[in-house]
Amino acid sequence: MTGNRLPLSFYQTYNTLELVKKLLGCELVHNSPDGITSGIIVETEAYLLDDPACHAYNRRTTRTEPMFGEAGTIYIYLIYGMYQCFNVVSNEVGTGEAVLIRALQPTSGIELMEQRRSLVPGKSERLSKNPKISLKELCRGPGKLVRAMGIERALHNNLHLADAPIFITPPVVSDFEIVSSLRVGINVGVDLPYRYYIKDNIFVSKG
DNA sequence: AGGATGATATTA
DNA sequence: AATATCATCCTA
């Protein structure tokens, strides 16, 4: 299902620690040239201004500039040379905060997702392992979901969710509990309980 | 448990 | 100019 697009005002209404929870249960949609893919956001992480683990912490550079833009701006960065992470910029212009999308429950374009995920990152050769990746593993992690959704830094970084081929819908599920925990993969600074996910959802990544 | 893989921030 | 550092995933 690909519902309607949340407007700019949605992203402006909430601060980062509110938005990180508000995005759970919403649907992330990419209307790409190859077709539409979408998934329900089931896991998020907040990155705040005063947090050493935040890219924008004490650094406003070429890479982090999108984080200082309008709430709802897309911030994508390359990690470990081969994967990319997708973030929703939050808070006011000039602040430098964002929400990392860590996992999706796939809803449409499953076949297209399978095709994209069966290739080695950045190449057209197939992965050596499974001929087919399970539904559960398609978007179970920030690098995985970016690949499954066909999101690319070169194409989508610094676009805005209010008018890009990528957008987020209002919640499509509502009856769930939100759990918070320490964030995943953080190596610097104090770790904070800024990871949020839908309780008992099997599409949430391992923490 | 280790390796892939490259941009970026930091140090010099 | 050189190096250390990654908000990860895959294969063993």
Approximately how much helix is present in the residues? Answer: 10-25%
Distance between the termini: 28 Å
- Mean pLDDT comes to 95
Number of helices: 5
Count of individual beta strands: 8
The string of secondary-structure elements, in order, is HHEEEEEHHHEEE
Structural class: alpha+beta
Characterize the overall form: globular
Q: Determine the strand fraction and express it as a percent band.
A: 25-35%
List the uncertain runs: none
> Tell me about the biggest sheet?
8 strands, antiparallel
| Radius of gyration, taken over Cα atoms and rounded to an integer in Å | 16 Å
Topology overview:
Layout: H1 8-13, H2 16-22, E1 27-32, E2 35-47, E3 74-79, E4 83-90, E5 97-108, H3 110-117, H4 142-149, H5 153-156, E6 166-168, E7 178-181, E8 195-198
Antiparallel strand pairs: 1-2, 1-6, 2-5, 2-8, 3-4, 4-5, 7-8
Helix pairs in contact: 3-4
This protein binds a DNA duplex (12 and 12 nucleotides) through strand 3, strand 4 and helix 4.
Description:
- With 207 residues, the protein is of the alpha+beta class.
- 16% of the residues lie in helices and 27% in strands.
- It contains 5 helices and 8 strands.
- The protein has helices spanning 8-13, 16-22, 110-117, 142-149, 153-156; strands at residues 27-32, 35-47, 74-79, 83-90, 97-108, 166-168, 178-181, 195-198.
- Strands 1, 2, 3, 4, 5, 6, 7 and 8 form an 8-stranded antiparallel sheet that branches.
- β4 (83-90) and β5 (97-108) form a beta hairpin.
- The protein starts with 7 loop residues before the first helix and ends in a 9-residue tail after the last strand.
- The structure holds a DNA duplex (12 and 12 nucleotides).
